[in-house]
Amino acid sequence: MDYINAFWVGGLICALCQILLEKTKMMPGRVMVLLVCTGATLSFLKIYDPFAKYAGAGASVPLLGFGHLLFQGVKDAVDAKGFLGLFTGGFKASAVGISGALIFGYLASLVFKPKMKE
User: What is the DSSP string of 52-84?
Assistant: First the structure.
């Protein structure tokens, strides 16, 4: 049942984002920022954890999960270091994921010969 919940919740999130792209004049970057901010807001309201427990990877893989990760990192760093945690918490919490994306993106570019769209 975990796989089914992850599939339909993740699919619903993606479908809603696609509707935003098709029916509004929002650019993809703005939709991505909206997802990250929504994840951070849901985390602040303590709604994200029960949602992620129910949906599993369907909630944590899209950019909602990244917003939650940033919020939790900042919250933990502020608890530990005070005001300076505002500036360091998000970087520390997300460093592994961002580094992995950069490294694997670079390796893929070496293998697949990237080119610009025409």
Answer: HHHHTHHHHSSHHHHHHHHHHHHHHHHHHHGGG
- Rounded distance between C-alpha atoms, residue 18 and residue 30, angstroms: 12
Q: What span, in angstroms and rounded, lies between the C-alpha atoms of 84 and 78?
A: 7
Q: What's the pLDDT band for 101 if we cut at 50, 70, 90? A: confident
Secondary element (H or E) of residue 109: helix 85-112
Q: What is the pTM of this model?
A: 0.77
Of 67, 60, 61, residue with least CA distance to 90: 67
Angle separating helix axes 28-44 and 63-81, nearest 10 degrees: 50
Q: Count other Cβ atoms within 10 Å, centred on residue 73.
A: 19
Question: Do 97 and 52 contact (CB within 8 A), yes or no?
Answer: no
Report how far residue 65's alpha carbon sits from residue 77's, in angstroms, rounded to the nearest whole number.
18
Among 27-36, 55-64, 104-113, the minimum mean pLDDT is found in 55-64
The SS3 call for residue 56 is: coil
